[in-house]
DNA sequence: TAAAAACCTTGATATAGATCAAGTTGCTTT
DNA sequence: AAAGCAACTTGATCTATATCAAGGTTTTTA
């Protein structure tokens, strides 16, 4: 399980054997069965989580029980709840596994230690935060500007693999449309 | 103009006189008249921009000429286009002044120098990036989950001052609804 | 200070997408 | 392998919001 994380890191920066030992020493390995929660709303989230295998979703539940998917995380993506982690307040999010999955958890203090000890690791993480922010901006743009069809096309464009990997009604939820609408949009898109 | 930036910093971290001199030495001071562009799409954005005075908007234009407002930035907020800055590619965004404004620009190399030389400054900036990311997540949630009325209420909640400071049709654009709908929503909200 | 723009509101109408409902297919679980 | 559940589709209808249009108000500019 650690090898995947190690490869992910070594593909981007150069670290010594000892550096990897240090990282490994603070990793918490966790296997999740399909449908198992990694985080439930109301809990306080304490980690940074790296997905080695499988796929998770991060969602919020509204007052009517409606689920709204904030994001998916597959292998080599990060997940968690930055807001709860930063503020120490209970999370409004739920994270659960869409498939049997394997994740690595690193507590906030350990993570900060790594960033302090390993400048290259710190840069790597910073780059990811930057990229996530940019992705969020683009998602906001699509949410406030696009039609249902444009939203779906841009999803396929950006996440071609997820398009077939996660249930359609979850993609609909991610896009902020109903499953019925997505089904009809797909029929249209298939025609052209 | 620099005093505002200095106060903003000193309210959050402690720096020496020399540190401020260093910061000041890389600041580019710029005054903008109402409607003046700070960035036009197609240009490559090279700075981090801190708003000392006034208010700007950041927006994208779609193929039909429709404007979609990504964000507002008033005094003591940051603005710019992180994506263009990071990738070096032409920006898809426009930034212009809604009021006569004053901004401080810091080029990317200078900014990185400051972050490297002044760890506290680096932490400060990191905190801002984190908070912006969290704000983006919350905006995504509202965009995919809320009705027009809920969107407007949450805007008033989050930005009570902007509610009266920027034109209504721009708030509508920010929320992803039409100006007419916003006008009607406001009438409803006023009743209750 | 008058003319021109920009802005906001209100009404009438249109429509994209939501909701409700039923049937089908395809996974899980025992 | 059957039963039960979850996922997808399709049709009918409804509704929140968009679009189109016009008038009134405020702000800008000459």
From TrEMBL, chains A, B:
Tell me the InterPro entries matching this sequence.
Answer: cNMP-bd_dom (IPR000595), cNMP-bd_dom_sf (IPR018490), RmlC-like_jellyroll (IPR014710)
A Pfam family that this protein carries is cNMP_binding
Q: Where is the Cyclic nucleotide-binding domain?
A: 36-114
Gene3D superfamilies named in the record: Jelly Rolls (2.60.120.10)
Name by which UniProt lists this protein:
CRP-like cAMP-binding protein
Source organism (scientific name): Mucilaginibacter lappiensis
């Amino acid at each position: 399980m650690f090898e995947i994380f190690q490869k992910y890191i070594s593909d981007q920066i150069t670290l010594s054997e000892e550096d990897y030992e240090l990282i490994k020493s603070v990793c918490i390995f966790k296997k999740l069965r399909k449908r198992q929660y990694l985080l439930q709303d109301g809990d306080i989230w304490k980690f940074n989580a790296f997905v080695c295998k499988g796929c998770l979703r991060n969602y919020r539940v509204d007052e009517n029980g409606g689920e709204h998917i904030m994001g998916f995380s597959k292998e080599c993506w990060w997940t968690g709840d930055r807001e709860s982690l930063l503020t120490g307040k209970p999370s409004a999010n739920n994270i659960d596994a869409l498939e049997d999955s394997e994740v690595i958890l690193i507590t906030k203090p350990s993570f900060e230690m790594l960033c302090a000890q390993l400048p290259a690791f710190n840069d790597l993480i910073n780059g990811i935060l930057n990229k996530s922010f940019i992705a969020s901006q683009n998602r906001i743009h699509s949410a406030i500007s696009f039609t249902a069809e444009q939203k779906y096309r841009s999803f396929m464009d950006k996440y071609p693999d997820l398009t077939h990997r996660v249930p359609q009604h979850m993609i609909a939820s991610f896009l902020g449309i109903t499953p019925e609408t997505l089904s009809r949009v797909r029929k249209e898109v298939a025609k052209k």
